[in-house]
Automatic annotation (TrEMBL):
This is Alkyl hydroperoxide reductase AhpD. SUPFAM superfamilies: AhpD-like. It comes from Streptomyces poonensis. It comes from the Bacteria. PANTHER family: 4-CARBOXYMUCONOLACTONE DECARBOXYLASE FAMILY PROTEIN (AFU_ORTHOLOGUE AFUA_6G11590), BLL7811 PROTEIN. Residues 15-96 form the Carboxymuconolactone decarboxylase-like domain. InterPro entries: AhpD-like (IPR029032), AhpD_core (IPR004675), CMD-like (IPR003779). GO terms for molecular function: peroxiredoxin activity.
Length: 157
């Protein structure tokens, strides 16, 4: 399967994506734990059905030492005992921030307060930006039908 668009071959899209990718690298350098970042990126991508992002974040997380058990249980994190309370709060915020159209009230105060118990302001800002970034990346990849399966860990870093 070939992608509908090659974003990097288009001058306008290429320029825009250069800045978007720079934002993604900035988030990687934030004080939000790297493992949490990968879990959140994976969960947002699962919700949105972005195969190429699921491929990427599963492989990057595994290469960074994440266990197969935790990766397999991200989709069912509420019932899984393998995540810390802070990770659970981040996954809860990621789901609420991704499913804004499904949740009439958007991200509720209880969800926000739970995340704020575990992360400082800089980490919360990085978490919110990561959720928004992943939703953007997912939509770009889904619309263009980017194929999945060939990603090599660290390919875009």
């Amino acid at each position: 399967m070939d992608a509908r668009l090659n974003y990097f071959a288009d001058p306008t899209a290429g320029k825009a994506l250069k800045h978007l990718m720079a934002a993604g690298r900035t988030l990687k350098e934030s004080p939000l734990p790297a493992a949490t970042q990968e879990l959140v990126a994976l969960r947002v991508s699962q919700i949105n059905g972005c195969a190429v992002c699921i491929d990427m974040h599963t492989k990057d997380a595994a290469a960074a030492g994440e266990t197969a058990v935790r990766l397999h249980l991200v989709a069912a994190w509420r019932e899984a005992t393998v995540f810390t309370e802070a990770e659970r709060a981040a996954l809860e915020l990621a789901e609420a921030g991704t499913r804004v159209a499904d949740a009439a009230g958007g991200v509720g105060d209880e969800v926000w307060a739970h995340a704020a118990q575990h992360y400082d302001q800089e980490q919360l800002a990085a978490l919110v930006l990561l959720i928004a970034f992943m939703n953007t990346a997912n939509r770009l990849n889904i619309i263009a039908q980017q194929p999945a399966g060939d990603y090599e860990p660290g390919q875009f870093h």
